[in-house]
């Protein structure tokens, strides 16, 4: 069974393991088990910067990381992109995010119990400021995860 770098299982297109929801009319498809977590994240992000890019965002995509043979977190439904055209991959670390937005997102990721289950692509060596993903399957399955009942 193929897995992503964060340990999540790659999901085949059309699988019942995928769940769908919308934010301001923009559809998101993610790993069904993490649906509440992504609803929470996207509600938070929408308050920081409204999602406006129908067709650019959404999460699940059965594909490799661009230019590699490594499965993307998108292939497991464990990642989403937010307003992709405004926050281009490979550019400036926080491309398109204001200083205030950066501080608010950073606060959410480091100071909320639920935010600690996500990481932001803006923090990577090759920045991807549109990208948010679950940190790891091991952390997801560890005791104390507020998303797992």
Task: Lay out the secondary structure.
Elements: E1 18-23, E2 26-31, H1 35-48, E3 79-81, H2 99-111, E4 118-120, E5 131-134, H3 137-141
Structure report:
This protein has 149 residues and is of the alpha+beta class. It has one domain (35-140). Helices cover 21% and strands 15% of the residues. The strands form 2 sheets. It has a 3-stranded antiparallel beta sheet with strand order 3-5-4, with no helix packed on it. The chain has a two-stranded antiparallel ribbon with strand order 1-2. Strand 1 and strand 2 (26-31) form a beta hairpin. It starts with 17 loop residues before the first strand and ends in an 8-residue tail after the last helix.
Measured distance between first and last alpha carbons: 26 Å
What characterizes the major β-sheet?
Answer: 3 strands, antiparallel
Number of beta-strand segments: 5
Give me the secondary-structure category. alpha+beta
């Amino acid at each position: 069974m193929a897995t992503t770098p964060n340990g999540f299982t790659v999901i085949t297109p059309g699988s019942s393991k995928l769940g769908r929801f919308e934010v301001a009319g923009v559809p998101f498809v993610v790993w069904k088990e993490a649906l509440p977590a992504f609803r929470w994240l996207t509600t938070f992000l929408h308050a920081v910067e409204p999602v406006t890019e129908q067709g650019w965002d959404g999460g699940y995509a059965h594909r490799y990381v661009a230019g590699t043979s490594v499965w993307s977190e998108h292939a497991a439904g464990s990642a989403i992109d937010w307003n992709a055209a405004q926050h281009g991959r490979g550019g400036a670390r926080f491309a398109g995010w204001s200083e205030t937005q950066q501080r608010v997102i950073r606060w959410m990721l480091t100071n909320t119990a639920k935010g600690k289950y996500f990481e932001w692509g803006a923090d990577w060596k090759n920045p991807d400021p549109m990208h948010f993903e679950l940190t790891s399957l091991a952390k997801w399955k560890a005791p104390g995860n507020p998303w797992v009942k």
